[in-house]
Specification:
Blueprint (H helix, E strand, L loop, with lengths): L1 E6 L11 E5 L2 E4 L2 E4 L10 E5 L8 H15 L3 E5 L5 H14 L4 E5 L2 H6 L6 E6 L7 H12 L4 E4 L4 E6 L7 E2 L12 E3 L4 E8 L2 E7 L2 H13 L4 E5 H4 L3 H12 L5
Parallel strand pairs: 1-2, 1-15, 3-5, 5-6, 6-7, 7-8, 8-9, 9-15
Antiparallel strand pairs: 3-4, 10-11, 10-14, 12-13, 13-14
Length: 259
Amino acid sequence: MYIYMTSPPENCAPESKIFLPAPFCYKLTGGKLTIDKKKPELLGGAMIIDAQGLTGVNISSITDEILAEVFRQKATATVVNSGNANQNAVAALVAEITAKMPEIRIFLPDTQMNAGLFRNTPSVSLLVQSAISGGSLSDSLERSVRLFGQNRIGLETDRISIDFVVPSADFAGASVPVARLPKDRTVHFSEELAVNYLCTNDDGDRHFILFDDVASLMYKIRLAESFGVSHIFMFYPHVSDIYEELEAELLALYGSAFS
């Protein structure tokens, strides 16, 4: 099992014998790779690259800069957050990285476009999002594994805390701090969403609140493992308050794998 702890330079996760570093401090802008000056000097793990500014200019030289940083960081994987970036430019970048360094694992968001473009590119893996408000996480994992194979899937295990007012036309929720969650309500667990939930009636409105804790995050990891998925990504700012408890749970579960 490979568990990466993604952290921005201003909120860096501590060194760990369990979590692999995944600094989120690389951007593709103006035809260049820019690196935040506060980037932590933790070696190994993964590079998280924000490709929002990728335009298709200087793809070859950008690739060389990325690979130079891969060697310097001794990274074994990269995550390309493409978002609204030019998809043709992203495809060209991935093709260039693959051609120059096919052994580096590239994770891309699990979108229909990425699934179609990179299904036959062995070094490309899909990153499945665990934070869902409908459907089934198990179904999402099963679909992705069926398309790409279990060795080419990663799970972005994001901790959520979202308040939905129901009924709602678009089922759009608002983030709520974990510390402000009601303390005196019965908590349930949804196996389909792989998350805790509770219901409240406040100020005449009915609220449906989804939230993660250590137990639900561990459930997601074990669920991914049951599908043969061995690459997990977590975001340190969202789990910093439960970081030590997560470490202890993972050590108890996987023990020898991290020794």
